[in-house]
Specification:
Layout (H helix, E strand, L loop, with lengths): L17 E4 L7 E5 L5 E6 L10 E6 L2 E8 L2 E3 L3 E2 L5 E15 L7 E14 L6 E8 L2 E8 L7 E7 L2 E3 L5 E7 L10 E5 L8 E2 L3 E4 L5 E7 L7 E5 L5 E6 L8 E4 L2 E2 L2 E7 L2 H6 L2 H4 L16 E2 L1 H4 L14 H14 L3 E4 L9 E2 L12 E5 L5 H11 L2 E7 L7 H11 L1 E7 L6 H16 L3 E4 L8 H4 L3 E4 L16 H7 L18 E2 L13 E2 L2 H10 L6 E2 L12 H6 L6 E8 L3 E8 L2 E8 L4 E6 L8 E8 L10 E8 L4 E6 L4 E6 L4
Parallel strand pairs: 24-34, 25-28, 28-29, 29-30, 30-31, 32-33
Antiparallel strand pairs: 1-8, 2-3, 3-4, 4-5, 6-7, 6-12, 8-9, 9-10, 10-11, 11-22, 11-23, 12-21, 13-20, 14-15, 14-16, 14-17, 16-19, 17-18, 18-23, 19-20, 26-27, 35-36, 36-37, 37-42, 38-41, 39-40, 39-42
Helix pairs in contact: 4-5, 6-7
Length: 666
């Protein structure tokens, strides 16, 4: 698997761009449609002399989904740039391009859209360009500010972007207490009318109407700017863009010229199509470095299981003998990385004078602790073909990004988790960018934890494996809040934004009545089949195998964990209901991998196999066993032949699931 990680380097791309200058720049209304014609957007400017903002609305397949949405950008000295503005120049463009995707949900993305660019301004104010795009599955817009003589730094004070939802639909989102957050909260399911005035809402925010269409509001290409949340505007149906302020109160301080991130509304007639979308990826720029060194894969995560190899703790986790034991196990099972995080007191591997994960002023991530024989561990890992992953608190990296990542390359770290960012103001976003630039120069893969949602950065930074940004299975160390129902709400909100780390691999499933949180060797909720399915239904090119190695010994289903790929050539979501079920089929080369995760009562999952190629195919099936109602670890393994005309019917337990491998190579 690892050898083949760089196979997507030769592509045939098609780019068609046409430009059309509008005949009447004095018009007050403009329409833009998606290439397939299903999305129609109409933008309206106010009467001359008005100080109101431009408004837009949108429909999907003839049904109004967004209405009376506003556009606005307020900057210091000039005020609201679009108040009363009229377009002085209008340009249209068509675009259709095939884009290579590295380590994602498909081997390529189709970047197809119609674009409308409106140059707006009023004498005495900075001009601003509104750029709107209609993709076949999304609406995207941003503001662009060109160079201005005599103007250097510009302070953005507010953004007037709003999203007016037609009717009173159900929305699915995290209610945020404030801007200083890890974005690790339960996902709420409420009608828009039930959202308190002024409530801060996380994105992606998913809008579900009975029978569709389905929407998800988020952003793309977040760079050198504060991340977007939403806030309900009084008791109206408007959701207003909200941003974590800088210490000086501004949203962002930027030099001219600059562009804002894309504001994006994904739109689909199927809920699962929101998860299939690649538009966020397309809205980002290609990398400016050669990413051929990027090789994802699975990794151990001893912090989750309590720093052990066997059921009982043995030698210290950072000792040479313990590391060798883990590395040999990784090599035997095709696990690409072994993670060395901290010792049994949660004190990191690097120089730090006080115990615990949180650093003191003298903490230094460029130097390993004296009692940690990293050179010998590195030599053993290299000899076994296993790479080393580590962890750092973000405070020991801030302001020293180049120095720290140069040290990581010298020390032999191939990947790192940067943790506890817990904010998405401009300074934090710029810090994350600095980390990724330094990591690219020194060939280090990156996970971000305690982190805001992705915005398609995986295109620009292919070495960014994932973000956390969700209440995930680590919480079972302390609480029962990460239930199968919760996971299947996260899957239709946070996961829409991009790859997500979820602490996969727990092999001690218990019934809800028997669950008790514990920090060491934690239990999980949901059946063994459900836990296996998460390796398929969740996007993550570098997922954890987080339980201790002995927990997998002679256990049914571990063969699936070893074999399942971590990135894909094709993805199809076959069944989807928020908080209830997610069935996803993914192809890697000639094999299809099927994952079904459910919540709630036991049921039969019915999957037509019409996505398969012609011909009989061998299938391996791992499903909830007959005794799963008593022991949620019960797993039945079957082998049989299937064809595309068949319908697969699988009985799963409460909070259950199954996985299948079809087209198995003998």
């Amino acid at each position: 698997m690892i050898v083949r990680a760089c196979r997507r380097v030769a592509w045939v791309g098609v780019l068609i761009a046409t430009f059309a200058r509008a005949q009447d720049t004095a018009a007050r209304e403009f329409e833009l449609k998606s290439p397939d014609g299903r999305i129609a957007l109409r933008i309206r400017f106010q009467e001359p002399g008005s100080t109101d903002l431009p408004r837009w609305s949108a429909s999907f397949a003839g049904e109004r989904v967004l209405e009376d949405c506003r556009l606005g950008l307020e900057v210091e000295d000039d005020g609201e740039l679009l108040a009363g503005a009229m377009p002085s120049d209008v340009t249209r463009r068509s675009h259709d391009e095939r884009i290579a995707v590295r380590f994602g949900k498909a081997e390529y993305a189709r970047d197809r859209f119609e674009e409308l660019r409106l140059v707006c301004g009023i004498e005495g104010r900075l001009p601003v360009q509104i750029v709107l795009r209609c993709h076949d599955d999304a609406i995207a817009f941003r503001y662009e500010l060109p160079p201005a003589p005599g103007r250097d730094a510009l302070r953005v004070l507010a953004e007037g972007s709003t999203f007016g939802l037609a009717g009173d639909p159900r929305i699915h989102t995290q209610f945020l207490p404030h801007f200083r957050t890890s974005h690790e909260h339960e996902v709420r399911d409420v009608s828009l009318g039930e959202v308190p005035a002024g409530q801060l809402l996380d994105v992606p925010l998913t809008v579900a109407r009975e029978g569709g269409p389905f929407l998800s509001i988020t952003e793309a290409a977040l760079l050198r700017y504060a991340g977007m949340s939403l806030r309900r505007d009084g008791t109206s149906r408007q959701l207003t863009a909200a941003f974590a302020p800088r210490d000086d109160g501004a949203i962002a301080v930027r030099s001219l010229p600059f562009v804002t991130p894309w504001r994006v509304v994904l739109v689909a007639d199927r809920l699962g199509a929101l998860l299939e979308s690649q538009t966020l990826y397309c809205l980002n720029e290609a990398p400016d470095f050669d990413p051929s060194w990027v090789k994802p894969g699975k990794l151990t995560w001893p912090w989750w299981n309590g720093y052990r190899f066997e059921k009982e703790r043995g030698e210290p986790i950072l000792s040479l003998n313990s590391a060798k034991q883990h590395i040999d196990w990784c090599a035997a099972n095709g696990i690409a990385f072994h993670a060395l995080v901290a010792d049994e007191t949660d004190t990191p591997w690097y120089v730090q004078s006080k115990p615990g994960l949180f650093p003191d002023p003298g903490a230094d991530a460029t130097r390993a602790r004296a009692d940690f024989d990293l050179p010998a561990i590195r030599d053993h890992a290299t000899a076994r073909g296993v790479r080393l992953w580590t962890w750092v608190h973000h405070e020991v990296v801030r302001g020293r990004e180049e120095e720290v990542f140069a040290a990581f390359e010298r020390l032999g770290w191939s990947g790192v988790m940067v943790d506890f960012l817990d904010r998405d103001d401009q300074a934090t976003v710029e810090f994350a960018e600095a980390v990724l630039h330094a990591a690219a120069r020194h060939h280090v893969l990156v996970h971000f934890h305690g982190m805001y949602k992705p915005s398609g950065w995986q295109r620009t930074f292919p070495h960014l494996m994932n973000h956390e940004g969700s209440l995930n299975l680590e919480y079972l160390k302390w609480t029962a809040r990460c239930t199968p129902e919760h996971t299947l709400r996260v899957a239709f909100t946070r996961l829409i934004a991009g790859p997500m780390d979820y602490h996969l691999g727990g092999f001690r499933a218990v019934l809800p009545k028997d669950f008790a949180p514990r920090n060491d060797a934690p239990n999980v909720l949901g059946t063994r089949g459900h836990q296996l399915a998460l390796y398929v239904v969740l996007d993550n090119p570098s997922p954890m195998v987080a339980d201790y190695p002995a927990a997998y010994r002679d256990q049914p289903g571990f063969d699936f964990v070893v074999a399942v790929p971590t990135w894909w050539d094709e993805t199809r979501v076959l069944d989807a209901a928020i908080g209830r079920v997610l069935v996803t089929a993914r192809r890697r080369d000639g094999e299809w991998w099927l994952g079904a995760a459910t919540a709630g009562e036991a049921r039969e999952i019915v999957v037509p196999l019409s996505f398969l190629p012609e011909g009989p195919l061998a299938m391996q099936l791992w499903r909830d066993g007959d005794g799963v109602a008593v022991d949620p670890n019960a797993l039945a393994i079957e082998e049989r032949e299937v064809a595309r005309k068949d319908v697969l019917r699988v009985r799963v337990g409460s909070g259950g699931g199954f996985v299948a491998r079809i087209g198995v190579k003998r």
